[in-house]
């Protein structure tokens, strides 16, 4: 799967053409009319570097080094990668492929993301609050995916020691996939009451899934309310213990 996706990225990059590369070592802006091929962002210690993208096009990649920050509200980027402890904040626009590598973090608040996937590797973390993941979301090695909202159009996959956390309630798991697909299905409600359904690539992926209430709910329950524990087994059966 990853080899096919990478080939597709190379093909798209070849079709959109190339422009100048740029390196940021201090705060900067990418805006309407700007066209770059590769963008690199570095800190200048002790100062962090923040680059904000409000429009424009990056044909190849944005790479974050050190603890630099990339804020995206509009425009198009083919690939964004947070290395080291870099941070990606996507609040709009289109990012075709997103990586959280090393101890990097990618936060997806809205926008069209992941035409070619969203991935967490190393000890990277991806937090999805809203928006549309157009293909798949994946975690490998010790990567973490935290799902608070949003929609994934294809599937979720995981391997190695990675973890995928869902924060919500009313969870169900159907290893047979239900109607229309043979892939396992996880469904439930986000904390705001919005229903969701996500397909997993296979039953092994469920070994990496954690179905969790929000931390504040846990605190309230421990503060005196009756504790309800959902125990979801691989058979798809749910047991409620009070």
User: What integer value in Å does the Rg equal?
Assistant: 19 Å
Strand content: over 45%
Uncertain regions spanning at least 5 consecutive residues: 1-16, 215-242
Q: How would you state the average pLDDT, rounded?
A: 83
* Helix percent band: under 10%
The SSE string, one letter per element, is HEEEEEEEEEEEEEEEEEEEEEEHEE
Tally of DSSP helical segments: 2
Form type: elongated
State the end-to-end CA separation.
Answer: 43 Å
Largest sheet: 22 strands, mixed
Oligomerization state of this entry? single chain
Provide the domain count. Answer: 1
Helix and strand content put the structural class at mainly beta
Give the beta-strand count: 24
Write a concise keyword list for the protein shown above.
about 240 residues, mainly beta, two-stranded antiparallel ribbon, about 10% helix, about 45% strand, elongated, disordered N terminus, disordered C terminus
Explain what this protein looks like in three dimensions.
This protein is mostly beta strands and 242 residues long. The chain has one domain (2-213). The chain has two helices and 24 strands. Strand 23 and strand 24 (238-241) form a beta hairpin. The longest helix has 15 residues, at 2-16.
Short description:
The protein is mainly β and 242 residues long. The protein is 10% helix and 46% strand.
Annotate the secondary structure layout.
Elements: H1 2-16, E1 22-24, E2 28-30, E3 35-41, E4 50-53, E5 57-64, E6 69-72, E7 76-82, E8 87-90, E9 94-100, E10 105-108, E11 112-113, E12 118-120, E13 125-128, E14 132-133, E15 136-139, E16 144-147, E17 151-152, E18 155-158, E19 163-174, E20 185-190, E21 195-200, E22 209-212, H2 215-222, E23 229-232, E24 238-241
Parallel strand pairs: 1-3, 2-4, 3-5, 4-6, 5-7, 6-8, 7-9, 8-10, 9-11, 9-12, 10-13, 11-14, 12-15, 13-16, 14-17, 15-18, 16-19, 18-21, 19-22
Antiparallel strand pairs: 19-20, 20-21, 23-24
